[in-house]
Amino acid sequence: MAKSSNKHIPLRICAICRVRGSKYNLIRIVKSPDNKPVIDISGKLPGRGVYICPDSECIELAKKSGGLAHALGLRNIDSDSEFWLELENYAKSFDDTNLADKRLRAVIGLSRKAGALLIGVDNIKNFTHKVLVIIANDCSEGVRNFAGNYKTLTPSISIQELSEAAGSRGVQIIALPLSSGFAKKILNLTQQLSSKNFEGSNAFE
Ligand SMILES: [Zn+2]
């Protein structure tokens, strides 16, 4: 097994304090077609994204200085705009959910190192024990249909993020033996994930 020495963490810069951080630790904001700031919770909204730290100092400064409006190419964002309240609330929840998503990726990485990770449809198909399947939220229709045969979790992680966690390229689907400690850890984490989708009502009972 190859060592995971080439871990790639996408970095972004906070438009306000100019500190560089993992994009998973920053909030992405885009300009809507009707020139309003929009919090990009999915991380997938089109357009040029501006990043800001999920902390009250940066948000306060963004409000006072107009720095966020400027970075987005807007004339200004009214200080009584609902956007600021949304941003503050989202920033508050951000730490926990972000941490859970990060932990999920860490557990996937650990399970790979332990040799417990099944990557790709063929490996999962040929595995004879019960598994917990995890698919990227931007996986293909075919993969999604295949996953429908299993107990499946769709966290808010992309193919790129899943690939990084699994230490392979173009990973759309992974699985862990349900009996493994890793699967149990992930199931415990799912309470805190920022986005989740279980298929099957009694999926994990
Ligand atoms: Zn900042």
Helix residue percentage: 25-40%
For the record, what CATH class of the largest domain applies? Alpha Beta
Q: Tell me what portion of residues adopts beta-strand conformation.
A: 15-25%
What separation lies between the terminal Cα atoms?
Answer: 33 Å
- Report the principal-axis shape: elongated
Order of helices and strands: EEEEEHHHEHEHEHEHE
Mean pLDDT: 84
CATH superfamily grouping of the largest domain: Ribosomal protein L30/S12
Number of domains: 2
Bound molecules: zinc ion
Provide structural commentary.
- The protein is α+β, with helices and mostly antiparallel strands and 205 residues long.
- The protein folds into two domains: 11-97, YlxR-like (Hypothetical Cytosolic Protein, Chain: A, 2-Layer Sandwich), CATH 3.30.1230.10; 107-199, 2-Layer Sandwich (60s Ribosomal Protein L30, Chain: A).
- Helix content is 38%, strand content 17%.
- The protein is built from seven helices and ten strands.
- The protein has helices at 56-65, 67-72, 82-113, 121-125, 141-147, 159-166, 181-189; strands at residues 11-13, 20-22, 27-31, 37-39, 50-52, 118-119, 131-135, 151-153, 173-177, 198-199.
- The strands form three sheets. The protein has a five-stranded mixed sheet with strand order 6-9-7-8-10, with helices on both faces.
- The chain starts with 10 loop residues before the first strand and ends in a 6-residue tail after the last strand.
- The model is unreliable at 1-6 and 199-205 (pLDDT under 50).
- Bound molecules: zinc ion.
